[in-house]
Amino acid sequence: MERGRKEKRFEALRSHLSGDAPVSSYRELGEALGMSEDAVKVAVHRLRRRFGELLREEIAETVGDPSEVDDEIRYLLGALRS
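Predicted structure:
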């Protein structure tokens, strides 16, 4: 997001990244960012998908076998929820 000069958008959307209770609604974010509510929904969806891709790549670098990636992600997410 920094390279694309979208830092402001990322900061506004990041509370929706984890799936926890967000700070503001899509409608409120849209108003603040000059976007429609639907555009915010799409942006959050894309942000989550990209985050998942990057997380998977990082985890793949830490395991010995690619088949371990999914188990490692499940473990990590479980630890974060605890």
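Summary: The mean pLDDT is 88.
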